[in-house]
Amino acid sequence: MNNPFIADLTFKGQDFTKNRLPKGEYENCIFEGCDFSNGYVDNQNFMECGFIDCNLSNANLSHTVFKEVNFLHCKMMGLGFEECNNFLMSFKFSNCVLNFSSFYQLKLKNIQFIDSKLIEVDFTESDLTEASFDSCDLDKAIFFDSILERADFRTASRLSLDPERNRIKKAKFSKENIAGLLTKYDIIIG
Fold first, then answer.
1. pTM reported for the whole predicted model
2. Where is the domain boundary, 36, 64, 92?
């Protein structure tokens, strides 16, 4: 059974915590002020969609497709993005709270995180080649066996990663956050 094709619609202020979003292929749709928290967004297709001021915290994302999706001012805590369908996966996050979420083993080349909180986010074994972490809080974010080549951390704060456990060739760091590359040595810089 094919899912219905839904295009060019705006969903505003809707509560999808009790009644789930109907299964479909959503293209060029806007979700504004919607609540998906602790709900089900699984097995959906979102292509060229925007989520603005939405709460998706702890939502089930199993097999969901996100292609060219923008998240703006969204609360997205505790999400397992590795459960999504990774075919053509691409998204951008601006002013979002993604604390305690996971991007385990995902290919996220050129992904953009702007002014977002990424506290204790798991990027283990992710490919973040040319990723941008513009003005992001990376406190306790996990980078382990990650590909960070040409990634831009210059304006990120509270970054800590082990250069020996990650590929960081040509990654960009500021003088202020370079100390986060030396955390494992327990040295005092001052």
1. 0.93
2. 92
